[in-house]
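User: Hand in any protein.

Assistant:
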Amino acid sequence: MDAWVWVVIAAVVVLGAVAIWWSMRASRTRALQGRFGPEYDRTVAGTSNRSQAEADLRARQERVEQLDLRPLSRSDHDRFAAEWTKVQAEFVDRPVEAVADADRLIQDVMQQRGYPVADFDRRAADLSVEHPTVVENYRSAHSIAVKETHEDGDDADTEALRKAMVHYRSLFEELLVVDDSDARRN
């Protein structure tokens, strides 16, 4: 064969390899976007490049897959639901304390479900894997809670605190997964 034929063959092979690589990369990107939803965009916006952001999201996913996440028992579910009802009722007379209690209750539920709870940023990142649509609400609620609970209670922004409670409630409802398998077996 002539040399130009080999050049054409090599070019076709290289172009084919590039097309396959690009297609695989685009497929991984679509999978991450589908899995993480708005958290994907937030992570990409917060990093210097898309590859770094996608690596971070894959690392989160791998880390969470190693956790022993589990649903709540029926009794834990009922106990946490009752505590949430008390926290919501407390909001009327003591909104700052209610928001702080809601933050604590979310951590208690997460811990019972098997999430590590020592560090807020890690909690939020771990939550983003299984609950990507509400994790931004959690960040907002936590930010409000930190700001408003460290100010003088008389000067606290009640509307901001109400928003924090709404955000906490959306995450709380997603975390309140119960294991009814024992009840079905009986």
